[in-house]
Amino acid sequence: MMKYKNIYVAATSQHIGKTTTTLGLVKSFLNQGINVGYCKPVGQQYVSYLNHKVDKDAVLFADLIGMEVDPKLHSPVIFEKGTTELILDNPEELALQPLILHAKRELNKMHELTIFEGTGHPGVGTIANLSNARVAKLLDAGVIMVVEGGIGSTIDMLNMTTSLFREEGVPILGVIVNKVIEDKQEKVTRYLTKWLDTQGLNLLGVIPYDKTLAYPLVRTICAAIKGEVIMHQDNMYNRVAEVIGGSVVNMTELKDFQDLLLLTGARLINRAIHKIVSFSTYKEIDHSPLAGIVITGEGKLSKESIDYINHFKIPVIQTKLETYGVGLKISRLEVKINRRTPWKVLKAIALVNQYVNLAELKKEIEI
Questions:
Q1: Full 3-state SS string of 242-300
Q2: Helix/strand/coil (H/E/C) assignment for every residue in 117-136
Q3: DSSP assignments along 50-107, one per residue
Q4: What pLDDT, on the 0 to 100 scale, is given for residue 252?
Q5: Domain covering 6-210+338-362, topology
Q6: I need a surface site. Which of 4, 48, 206, 232 has the fewest CB within 10 A?
């Protein structure tokens, strides 16, 4: 049986959990004493890092495993705005595959095992002959396919997307099913195992949906609604578990008293805060349940409201959007793990450790 020095983490579509899964795998292998490297061979969302364009996930992993980011090794190819047109107009001017092969050679010299994280759905990068399947082949990697939980739809997506890898002759080491409703885990595991067995594929793990991984930051919400921070900007990295409306603040809404975003029109803000103060006093709770406040429209904060906000240093955002429009934009947010969400990193690692059969995966690895 062939064993692999490189693992490629792909997914059936975007926002399925590639980064979450890769985080858990890298950290778990590190904890077992394996010298693991990381690379995002093709990136789409980049940040400026030491005057270089580097995929944001590479920077996240630099923090996790203490690596010094080398763009040529950890983020060799970036598809930025205009890349598609450039490739179509002048295909001979862009030699991208050699960049990925160079990263592979150097990382393989440095590490016992390198985990490469894919980009988007399997077809991303086709315009440059760098689809996920093609990149995995260039890397001589075995693939772990991440798919969202379910049965029928999950099988449909796996059948369609794994065909791209089969065309390239790339082996699928196993499948990880992510975001499965907890009370359906046993059923999903049973039926997917039946189908995967007919395809010669290995079910490596079934990870339950964890709502905390979908919590946005106040900062993320502010950007989505094009808001203006008017108080306590330093706390814009507070996480948001739920949104409550100023018109319906009641004891039930405040049952958990933690990580809530108050979304209210300006004319209701003072009444809403007064209720929260009253409920907090009644329940003898000495902290605020609010991670942040979004105020729509024009209005004036009362002295009680200002004192409460300042006491707990609650970030306050003003927006010109109406309350319904703000709620709609928040509901459509796609929330990703990043450097500002350390609790998500820890949760991702814990989920992979608990629900993925790492011992089975290690059988496929050349270490």
A1: EEEEHHHCCCCCCCCCCCEEEEEEHHHHHHHHHHHHHHHHHHCCCCCCEEEEEEECCCC
A2: ECCCCCCCCHHHCCCHHHHH
A3: TTEEEEHHHHHHHHHHTPPP-HHHHS-EE--TTHHHHHHH-GGG---HHHHHHHHHHH
A4: 59
A5: Rossmann fold (3.40.50)
A6: 48
CA distance 307 to 39: 48
The predicted pLDDT at position 289 comes to 87
The residue count for the chain: 367
The helix-helix angle for 269-283 and 303-312 (nearest 10°) equals 60
pLDDT at residue 87 in the model: 77
CA of residue 1 relative to chain centroid, distance: 33
Tokens of 201: 């594929």
Q: How do beta strands 316-319 and 228-231 pair? A: antiparallel
Q: Which has the closest alpha carbon to 237: 145, 97, 341, 159?
A: 341
Residue written as token pair 């790339």? 170
Q: Tell me how many helices (H) and strands (E) the chain has.
A: 14, 15
Q: Which residue has the tokens 């809404």?
A: 253
Query: What are the C-alpha distances in Å from 192 to residues 29, 179, 205, 263, 362?
Result: 26, 14, 11, 41, 22
**Inter-residue contact 127 to 84 (CB < 8 Å):** yes
What tokens were used for 165?
């890898």
- Domain segments of the chain as ranges: 6-210+338-362, 216-331
Q: Would you state the structure tokens that stand for residue 174, as one six-digit string?
A: 């196993």
Contact 367, 112 (CB under 8 A): yes
For residue 141, the model assigns a pLDDT of 96
Please tell me the predicted confidence (pLDDT) of residue 91.
67
The segments of the chain whose pLDDT lies below 50 read none
Distances (CA, A) of 261 to 47, 129, 303, 324: 28, 44, 21, 14
216-331: CATH superfamily? HprK N-terminal domain-like (3.40.1390.20)
pLDDT at 335: 75
pTM across the whole model = 0.85
In three-state secondary structure terms, 34 is coil
